[in-house]
């Protein structure tokens, strides 16, 4: 049941007035997502229960193009989907334009209140005056994935319990990487310098911006320390030098080009999709993560005021982010739920991932969530700095540029991004 009010002329009522209709008279709701949300089967389930609804998904392979499209169409005033997914790194930009999104507390179902989610998850999508801009989908508690067969071939421990010593700290992780590449010709320790750097960066209380939204890239010693550790590992041959979510990166999973992968919970679905059935059982996941874990990633579903049927769109978004559906999404693609009730659900805690050597992935990541007491503040252009500044800068180091020169470039580009 939807509690629906008309906020502005741009927000449609709960009825069908102004809605997009299909040839057979159904209400078409569009939803724009990226990477893997695990919603494909849920869409079918929702349509079966709502025969007047037709869901059209616009799915982008990577987050950056999706968000570029979102902000372009937001500025143009037209062209957005009825439901738009927003990744946490871009949420601050959406919150700065919150007047262009519906207040889900007013237009959404009455039971979709902030206490459905972990407090820090809901707080991030709530404006200072109490408007809820996004329904939380997943979060990204961190664990470590690795290739058991490649570890064994290199003479490293391969059992999930035994490998914990290798992943205790970042120092021990990179030390193990030195041992691995010394034994394995043509196989790297990790996939991408940017992926390692991002995981390290997300562990800190303060990242690219402080809580007053001041850029602190140059003055934050943690960022420079992470940069040095990662680029030193690159210089010692530990990186496969792949760009995340590129076709070469996808192929790298299938061909075993690297042995470890920083694994927020949503990465399990990515690995299974890209590594393929021929590598089932070769990948394992352990709860151990260097320096204790953290959160990397997670998204929200928003309803722009451009939506021609915002009430029905909010109803769909609320249903997709209800505990029951988020558990199904996790079972489908490893997107770990952010809903309090879901985290205690037996179906989640007893869920077994057959691809990853029958690990009880639900219980593993539920334990990792408990290690996250707060999350890093994401300031303006945080996602842009991650994907368009530091990612390319680290790639340039992998391609031969001096690390100190690449750092200077990254700092300059970061300052330009927030001018």
Task: Give the structure's gist in a few sentences.
With 419 residues, the protein is of the alpha/beta class. The protein contains 18 helices and nine strands. It folds into two domains: 164 residues, D-Maltodextrin-Binding Protein, domain 2 (3-Layer(aba) Sandwich), CATH 3.40.190; 222 residues, Periplasmic binding protein-like II (D-Maltodextrin-Binding Protein, domain 2, 3-Layer(aba) Sandwich).
In terms of topology, how is this protein built?
Layout: E1 27-34, H1 40-49, E2 53-60, H2 63-76, E3 83-87, H3 88-96, H4 104-107, H5 119-124, E4 134-147, H6 148-153, H7 170-183, E5 188-190, H8 193-201, H9 221-235, H10 247-255, E6 258-264, H11 267-275, E7 283-286, E8 295-302, H12 310-320, H13 323-333, E9 336-337, H14 340-343, H15 346-349, H16 361-369, H17 382-398, H18 403-417
Parallel strand pairs: 1-2, 1-3, 5-6
Antiparallel strand pairs: 3-8, 4-6, 4-7, 4-8, 4-9
Helix pairs in contact: 3-17, 8-9, 8-17, 17-18
The count of domains is: 2
Percent in strands = 5-15%
> If you consult CATH, what is the topology of the largest domain?
D-Maltodextrin-Binding Protein, domain 2
The CATH class of the largest domain turns out to be Alpha Beta
Count of individual helical segments: 18
* CATH architecture classification of the largest domain: 3-Layer(aba) Sandwich
**How would the global form be characterised?**
globular
Biggest sheet character: 9 strands, mixed
Radius of gyration: 21 Å
Low-confidence stretches: 1-17
In whole angstroms, how far apart are the ends?
45 Å
According to DSSP, the number of beta strands is 9
Element-level helix/strand string: EHEHEHHHEHHEHHHEHEEHHEHHHHH
